[in-house]
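Customer escalation, tier 2.

The customer says the design service returned an amino acid string that "doesn't look like it belongs to this structure." They asked us to rerun it and document both sides in this ticket. The original structure tokens are below, unchanged.
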């Protein structure tokens, strides 16, 4: 729990984000496994605010539905028209007061499009705000190019923040300032509410600027302060897809560094992409070209990649997964997957089991030490322990209308090129012959043979393909055979 627990965090997410040129609202674009607003909500949660309000406007049904999915405790406030950041915060506060919440303490304001902002930076802002006894504290940053941002104007003598001037309203001298407003603030709740009532719209955009609250509070004799962000890249706001890619790269790098410092080997951070929700144990190893997504977990000494994509998949201790696509699969300790395997939802591989080359599995469990080494489809099946499935076998699970289940016991040996037509059960210790189409249950310990008898029609080539290369080869073979005798 945060020492400076705020009364509320207000997240501004009503804007349209036209520069994304997208049918998807800007704050719902995702990087590293979370929407932009999802990252901001997650960082805000680290402060344990009493209330968390997201101001929605553009595509609000979609944004509200998404928020309900990711965080059931988030409240939303509607801003019907985007009349500026000050107006948006006012809508957020009115939503709370309208439902009987009397805010007392600190209100933190953040933008919904700054996914790199960390909880730690918000903590630093909240603590500077409390320690300095400010009415408002703005999070600022020195940026290489301040074009488009609000500039932080400081008193030449004392260095105190006097105002924030928007780019469009700034003089040439002010535009030269490189310290900018990140759009993140800590406010005294009561003073903020009072000041928002006094914000005017006589600016170049005709909007209620949240930034004007600083000047209003300062003129009323209150303390205005600033906290400078340690890393200006943290406050990167996303306006277009170039910035989206840049933010993804930076966040991915941050996540990989955290993993590496916790004992994970990442062979090539440049081609490894992970979600914020992925977890690792020490001595996991990730080869190049690998994406680890969602709730994927790599246990100690496991190895994934190269060129693999794992979604919501757990990889057990010491397991090796290469050139594989897996979705909602469980790979047991010491198991081997791939190269070139496709594990679909519900694939469960027991300890030391194997789904080998060109193997697809779906809703199927493989017991301890069992193997599907080559070229097979295993769908809707339960396979016991220490069983071997022959190469090029298909679990025929679909009759065109319904899916059916196949059960195979322990210590079985099914032949190569089997069609196992479900529903069907093969008992413990049973064998099946190569090329069989198994449609009936096989009792434990039996050999099932289910294929046409071979018949050889002698002299067929000489009669039906006379003069062909095959006929000559056969003729030669016959002569050699006779002279051998
Ligand atoms: C704002 C700041 C600027 C700062 C910059 C940092 C103001 C007036 N300007 O400028 O000083 O440097 O952010 O990125 O505050 N929003 C609403 N409703 C509105 C308007 C905006 O919810 O009516 C939301 C947007 O969705 C966005 C955020 O507020 O998440 C910032 O709005 P935006 O229009 O991007 O402000 P900037 O012009 O970038
Ligand atoms: Ca912006």
């Amino acid at each position: 729990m945060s020492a400076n627990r705020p009364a509320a965090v207000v997240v501004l997410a009503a804007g349209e984000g036209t520069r994304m040129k997208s049918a998807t609202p800007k704050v719902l674009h995702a990087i590293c496994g979370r929407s932009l607003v999802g990252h901001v909500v997650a960082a805000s949660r680290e402060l344990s605010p009493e209330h968390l309000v997201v101001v929605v406007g553009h595509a609000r049904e979609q944004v509200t539905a998404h928020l309900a999915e990711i965080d059931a405790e988030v409240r939303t406030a509607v801003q019907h028209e985007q009349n500026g950041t000050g107006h948006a915060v006012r809508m957020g506060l009115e939503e709370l007061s309208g439902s009987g919440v009397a805010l007392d303490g600190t209100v933190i304001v953040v933008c919904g499009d700054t996914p790199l902002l960390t909880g730690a930076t918000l903590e630093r802002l909240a603590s500077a705000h409390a320690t300095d006894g400010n009415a408002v504290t703005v999070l600022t940053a020195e940026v290489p190019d301040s074009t488009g941002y609000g500039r932080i104007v400081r008193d030449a003598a004392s260095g105190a923040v006097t105002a924030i001037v928007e780019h469009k309203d700034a003089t040439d001298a002010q535009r030269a300032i490189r310290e900018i407003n990140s759009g993140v603030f800590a406010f005294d709740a009561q003073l903020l509410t009072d000041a928002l009532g006094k914000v005017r719209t006589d600016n170049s955009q005709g909007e209620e600027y949240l930034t004007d609250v600083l000047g209003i509070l300062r003129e009323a004799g209150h303390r205005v302060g600033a906290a400078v962000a340690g890393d200006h890249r943290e406050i990167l706001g996303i306006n277009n897809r170039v910035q989206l890619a840049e933010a993804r790269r930076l966040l991915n790098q941050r996540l990989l560094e955290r993993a590496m410092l916790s004992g994970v080997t990442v062979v090539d951070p440049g081609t490894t992409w992970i979600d914020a929700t992925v977890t690792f144990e020490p001595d996991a190893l990730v080869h190049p070209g690998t994406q680890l997504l969602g709730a994927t977990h790599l246990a100690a000494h496991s190895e994934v990649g190269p060129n693999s994509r794992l979604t919501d998949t757990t990889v057990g201790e010491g397991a090796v997964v290469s050139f594989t696509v897996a979705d909602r699969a469980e790979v047991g300790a010491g198991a081997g997957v791939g190269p070139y395997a496709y594990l679909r939802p519900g694939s469960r591989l027991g300890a030391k089991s194997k789904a080998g080359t060109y193997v697809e599995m779906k809703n199927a469990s493989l017991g301890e030490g069992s193997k599907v080494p080559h070229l097979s489809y295993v769908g809707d099946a339960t396979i016991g322990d220490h069983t071997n499935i022959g190469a090029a076998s298909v679990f025929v699970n679909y009759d065109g209308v319904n899916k059916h289940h196949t059960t195979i016991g322990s210590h079985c040996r099914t032949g190569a090129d089997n069609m196992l037509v479900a529903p069907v059960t093969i008992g413990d210790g049973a064998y099946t012959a190569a090329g069989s189409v198994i449609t009936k249950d096989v009792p434990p310990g039996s050999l099932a043979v289910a294929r046409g008898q071979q018949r050889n029609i002698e002299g067929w080539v000489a009669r039906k393909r006379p003069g062909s290369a095959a006929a000559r080869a056969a003729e030669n073979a016959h002569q050699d055979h006779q002279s051998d005798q």
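Tier 2 assessment: The sequence is consistent with the input. Residues 279 and 454 are 55 Å apart (CA to CA). Residues 12-15, 55, 79, 82-85, 87-88, 111-113, 149-150, 164, 166, 180-183, 209-211, 237 surround uridine-diphosphate-N-acetylglucosamine (ligand 1) (CB under 6 Å). Sent an explanation to the customer and offered a walkthrough call.
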